[in-house]
Amino acid sequence: MYREKSYGGGGDEELRFVIQTEEGDYLLAGNSNSNVSGDKSQASRGGSDYWLVRISAQGAKQYDQTYGGSDKEELRAMVLAEDGGIVLGGRSDSHASGDRSQWSYGETDFWLIKIAPENSRQLASRVAYQPELKVDEIDQVQVVAYPNPFADKITIHFALPETQPAMVRVLDSQGRAVITLFQAEAQANQKYEVEWQASQQEAGMYLLQLQTPTGQNTQKVILRK
């Protein structure tokens, strides 16, 4: 006797890797051309994307995540890191867009991403528009992080002069991604608030990065224990 189950969206999916976790669940990783449909909960970033699905030992989907830029990505490797995170690697034809923070060096590049362990993931919360913030007061990207230095938790406020995709993430001192705090289309002239709970991170300097298709704002923040 055997069991079988399908996972996918409305387009084409291609499974490349299956890894069992210490908890007995399974990580499925491959490529996807689908928008939100079927088991796919996030829209395509552009062309083909990396697609990660976690299922229980019984086959129930626990979550799925899409990673990619505005062009085509192709997953070629998946490794579990010692800290419990997940490393995905492959090739990318995209410039800085979607989850890609760097411009292409030519045509196709290596693209490596590190996904933080589940216990350090934090969901971004959006706050309502502040009436005292006037449209003509925002003529450039605004980012405020406080307190800085901080212990365990830091709050980040940001606003953009025009509606566009935005990503707020934390990098370590070597420029390696620690966690993505916000990734969505940000509306013009609205204040957004995200919070980083860093109690599981080592003390030291981190880089807070706000990335949009039109620019990038990076600030240093200090975590003290």
Explain the overall architecture.
The protein is an all-beta fold. It folds into two domains: 13-115, no CATH class; 135-223, Immunoglobulin-like, CATH 2.60.40.1930. It is built from no helices and 14 strands. It has strands at residues 13-20, 26-32, 49-55, 61-67, 73-80, 86-92, 109-115, 142-146, 153-159, 164-171, 177-186, 192-197, 204-212, 215-223. 27% of the residues are buried.
List keywords for this structure.
four-stranded antiparallel sheet; 225 residues; globular; Immunoglobulin-like; mainly beta; 14 strands; 2 domains; 0% helix
**Helix content estimate:** under 10%
Query: What is the residue-mean pLDDT, rounded to a whole number?
Result: 83
Low-confidence stretches: 119-139
Structural class: mainly beta
Strand content: over 45%
How many structurally independent domains? 2
Largest sheet: 4 strands, antiparallel
The helix-strand sequence is EEEEEEEEEEEEEE
* Total strand segments: 14
Radius of gyration using CA atoms only: 18 Å
Strand order of the largest sheet: 1-2-3-4
Number of helices: 0
Shape: globular
Oligomer: single chain
Gap from first CA to last CA: 54 Å
